[in-house]
Amino acid sequence: MARIIYTETKPHATVTVEQRYCKGCDLCVRLCPVGALQLSEAFSAAGYHYPVLTGQCTGCTVCEIICPDFAIVVSEQR
Ligand code: SF4
Ligand code: SF4
């Protein structure tokens, strides 16, 4: 089980990032349709910045779908 480096719950979704897989490529940040993600100022143990929620996530799951490393998981709130 990969270690979770970041998790945040917004009204529509919970976004979780797994440290072992995220390489800080910034793709999710650039492709989030509502600009809800930014790379962290902090570094992961692997030495990478990782995405954190700074805006209102809609739960669209685009970030989860496009992450090449399956590092970000979106759980929709019901
Ligand atoms: S979660 Fe995936 S797409 Fe986003 S920075 Fe990490 S590796 Fe890149
Ligand atoms: S689920 Fe959609 S709105 Fe939320 S952070 Fe990912 S791409 Fe952005």
Low-confidence stretches: none
Number of helices: 2
**Order of helical and strand elements:** EEHEEHE
Quickly count the domains.
1
Bulk shape: globular
Strand content: 25-35%
The CATH topology label is Alpha-Beta Plaits
The percent of residues in helical segments reads 10-25%
Structural class: alpha+beta
* CATH top level assignment: Alpha Beta
Fold and architecture overview:
The protein is α+β, with helices and mostly antiparallel strands and 78 residues long. 13% of the residues lie in helices and 29% in strands. The protein has one domain: 2-Layer Sandwich (Alpha-Beta Plaits). The chain has helices spanning 27-31, 62-66, and strands at 4-9, 13-18, 37-39, 51-53, 72-76. The radius of gyration is 11 Å and the shape is globular.
Layout of helices and strands:
Blueprint: E1 4-9, E2 13-18, H1 27-31, E3 37-39, E4 51-53, H2 62-66, E5 72-76
Antiparallel strand pairs: 1-2, 2-5, 3-4
One iron/sulfur cluster binds at residues 17, 22-28, 50-51, 67, 69, 71-72.
Which properties best describe this structure?
78 residues; alpha+beta; Alpha-Beta Plaits; 3-stranded antiparallel beta sheet; two-stranded antiparallel ribbon; 5 strands; 13% helix; globular; binds iron/sulfur cluster
